[in-house]
Design a protein that fits this description.
Blueprint (H helix, E strand, L loop, with lengths): L22 H21 L3 E4 L13 H11 L4 E8 L5 H14 L4 E6 L3 H4 L6 H20 L4 E4 L4 E5 L12 E5 L3 H9 L3 E5 L3 H17 L9 E9 L3 H20 L13 H4 L3 E3 L1 H13 L4 E5 L5 H14 L1 H5 L2
Parallel strand pairs: 1-2, 2-3, 3-6, 6-7, 7-8, 8-9, 8-10
Antiparallel strand pairs: 4-5
Helix pairs in contact: 1-11, 2-3, 3-5, 6-7
Length: 336
């Protein structure tokens, strides 16, 4: 997670006032995020992810493509996952071009999760929330066609109109990088299944995941294809300790410190994204045996890819947590 490491407003405050940002701290925080990414590759993690957020300190990647471009130059083996660009906030043709560049820069290691974004994010550029579902779905269709169409073409849709589209470079991966859509609603699950895409869940309880995965499989079967576990991503906040008590104690101390810092900013406007229980009480927190059990639960739900945000603790605590996970949990996970 590319989070600001100094005192700053909490996730519930949006937009966060720019006066709270010390540019030197922000620069160091971004460098630490790159260092954590290299550390993850060295420890044997399969990919490093980056997502898009605006006007907030908890994720300083208003353009995830820029950060992903930097990752292509420091990571040599790990895949690079954009989870994801917020489709209604960008020009979909420009997005297709930039993602193709990233696939080329990375040597064909790009993964993409296309997202709609939370209601507060739609206010970034005054996008009408009521239009964002249609913009997301049409934008995805446009990106996929732009990646695969061999001849220049025009586009006349409900939300987008372009007289000429001819994307250079084309993606290195054929027909294009692995793509995923949201799995957090019935309509999104059906949309992804109908286009042969994977799905992704963020901070959802396992019983909900299991229900949507079954719907995904049922719809994909109707469309003539069979998803595998690799088509289902689960995303959650992670902190690995030597034991459950150790992990909870470290997380509690960190959150307590952050609560004291954030109390100084409570006079600022609220309006952040919904804070669901698995954000305030993360799923992947505990000692090795607990974490292995939680991975098995997700595996039984049909999840094959887990994206963990090691966003709890100081930079040193994050490095140590990742090391504990890699040494004591990852070998068992890779055997599932």
């Amino acid at each position: 997670m590319n989070a600001y490491e100094g005192p700053a407003p909490g996730i519930e405050i949006w937009p966060a006032f720019p006066e709270s940002c010390d540019p030197a701290v922000a620069s160091q925080s971004i460098q630490h995020a790159l260092d954590l990414s290299v550390h993850a590759e060295q420890l044997g993690f399969d990919w490093v992810s980056v997502s898009e957020h605006h006007y907030a300190p908890y994720m300083m990647t208003p353009n995830p493509v820029v950060f992903a471009g930097a990752l292509t130059q420091v990571l040599k083996k790990a895949r690079i996952a954009l989870l994801g660009p917020l489709v209604p906030l960008v020009n979909p043709v420009r997005l297709a071009e930039e993602l193709s560049m990233l696939d080329a820069l990375s040597g064909g290691r790009l993964e993409v999760l296309f997202l709609r974004g939370t209601p507060n994010e739609h206010k970034t550029y005054d996008t009408k929330t009521s239009d964002t579902r249609g913009m997301t779905q049409e934008g995805i269709d446009l990106v996929l066609k732009a990646w695969t169409e061999p001849q220049p073409f025009s586009w006349e849709g409900e939300h987008y109109q372009f007289s000429k589209i001819a994307v250079w470079p084309r993606p290195l991966q054929k027909p294009h990088p692995n793509v995923y859509g949201s799995g957090n609603s019935e309509e999104s699950v059906l949309f992804a299944a109908q286009r042969g895409m994977g799905i992704a869940f963020s901070f959802a309880p396992p019983d909900v995941v299991k229900k949507w995965v079954q719907l995904f499989h049922d719809e994909a079967k109707k469309c003539g294809w069979q998803p595998g576990p690799e088509h289902v991503i689960y995303r959650g906040i992670a902190f690995a300790g030597d034991s459950d008590d150790d992990a909870m104690a470290q997380m509690g101390a960190y959150f307590g410190q952050k609560a004291e810092e954030q109390a100084l900013f409570q006079s600022q406007a609220m309006g952040g994204p919904p804070v669901v229980p698995l954000i305030s009480e993360p799923y992947f927190v505990g000692g090795p045996s607990t974490l292995i059990e939680r991975f098995q639960v997700l595996r039984d739900c049909g999840v094959g890819v887990v994206d963990m945000a090691f966003g709890v603790g100081t930079h040193e605590q994050k490095m140590a947590s990742m090391k504990t996970f890699a040494e004591q949990v990852l070998p068992s996970v890779h055997k599932m």
